[in-house]
Amino acid sequence: MASPFDIEEIYPDEGPAPRLPRRQAGTSPQSVAVTLLTDYTLRTRAALPSAAIVALLGEAGVTSAGARTAISRLARRGVLEGARQGRNSFYRLSRAAAADLSAGGNWITASTAETQAWDGCWTIVAFSLPQDHGTQRRALRGQLRWLGFAPLYDGLWISPYELAGPARARLAQLALGAVTVFRGRQDALGAIGQRAPVDAWDVDAISGHYEAFLRRWTPLVSRLGSVDGAAAVRARTEVMDTYRRFPTLDPRLPLELLPAGWPRRAARDLFAAVYDGLAEAAETHVRAVVARFADPVPPGIRAHTTADMLAGVREEGPCA
Predict the structure, then answer these.
(1) Contact 317, 299 (CB under 8 A)
(2) How many structural domains are present in the chain?
(3) Which CATH number characterizes residue 171's domain?
C-alpha cells in the first residue's frame, strides 16, 4: 500500500512512519477527504457513498471534480477501499491507513501534552557526510527533525531527550559509519563565548504559531452551542488541520528552557474544547448528508474525540 500522505510531515513513530499531508498554502482536497473520513469513521471504518463524500467536500470548498479526483487518487494509493452496491460506489479507509491514522492521532495528542521531567542532559548527534552525498544528507537531516532534533551547528544536532534504540538504528542506516551519538551536560566555559543549546530552535517562532492558533480559535469557544451543520464540520476540520502541525513545529522542549507562560498547554486545551465541543453537532450533520445518498444510513458514523486520539482505537464491528 502506498503511504496515504506525502513526505513533508510524518509522525516520528517507532515503526513505519505514518505521514501527514504536505504542508502547503491552503489544504489539498485529498487532505480534507482523509481528515473527514478519519473524524467520523476511523473507529469503525464505515463505508460512505462517494456522492456523500463529494457533498461533504463541497461544503469545505472543494469542487465536485476536485472531490472525485481526490477520492480516485486516494483509492489508487491504497488509502481508501472502494465497493459497489448497485449503482452506487462506497468508500472507506483501508485497514492499513486507519492504523496509521490512529497512531498519528495518538502522536498528536501525546506530543502536545506537558513535557516529561528533564535530567539536564542533551543528546548530541554528530555526522560528517561529503558534499556530493546531498540526498543522504537531506534524508538524515529530515529524520533528525522528525525526531525533534535541531542543528546547533551544521553537522551537530541536539535534543534534550534520549534517542530510542529503533531511532538510533535508523540514523545509523542513513549515515553508515559517519554518525556519532552521545549524551551529556553542557559545560559552562566562563568568559568564553558560547551558543546556548536552546538557541538551535527558533523559540519565538514556535510561540508565534501557538499565539496565532489561540487568537484564531479562542473567540469560538463562547459560542460553540450556536455552531451546527456544515459550519461545525468545517470548524472541526480546520482546527484539526492546524493543530496537527504542532508536533512538527514544537519539539517539546523542557519548560525550564522556555519563557514563562509557554502557550503549549493553552493551545492543547483550546483544541480539545473546539474539537470535542463541536463533535455532536458535526456528527449529526455528517449523518444527515450521508442520509441523502444512502438508505439506510451506514452504521458506524461516529465523531472522533481527543480521548479517542490519545487512547488509540480498535475497530468496532465487522470490517472484512
Answers:
(1) yes
(2) 1
(3) 3.30.70
Name every residue whose Cβ is closer than 8 Å to that of residue 270 and which is 6 or more positions away in sequence.
Answer: 213, 214, 217, 218, 221
**Quick check: is 234 in a domain?**
no
Burial class (CB in 10 A: 0-12, 13-18, 19+), 90: buried
Residue range(s) defining the domain that contains residue 132: 122-184
Residue whose C-alpha cell is 545509523: 172
- Integer Rg of the chain from CA: 22
User: Alpha-carbon distance 267 to 289, whole Å?
Assistant: 31
Is residue 313 a contact partner of residue 54, using CB atoms and an 8 Å limit?
A: no
pTM of the model: 0.81
Is 216 exposed, middle or buried (CB count within 10 Å of its CB: 0-12, 13-18, 19+)? middle
Query: What type of residue sits at position 119?
Result: D
Residue 9: the pLDDT is 38
Q: Report the pLDDT averaged over residues 285-289.
A: 97
Distance CA 298, CA 104 (A): 25
Rounded Cα–Cα distance for residues 133 and 153 (Å): 18
253 assigned to some structural domain = no
Say how far apart CA 140 and CA 146 lie, in whole Å: 10
Neighbours of 210 (CB within 10 A): 21
How many C-beta atoms surround the C-beta of residue 57 within 10 A? 23
The DSSP output letter for 7 is: S
Residue 161 has what pLDDT? 87
- Is residue 170 assigned to a domain? yes
Q: So what's the pLDDT on residue 166?
A: 73
pLDDT tens figures, 36-87: 999 999 999 999 999 999 999 999 999 999 999 999 999 999 999 999 887 8
What size, in residues, is the chain?
A: 320
Query: Quick check: is 78 in a domain?
Result: no
The residue type of 79 is: V
CB 82 within 8 A of CB 75: yes
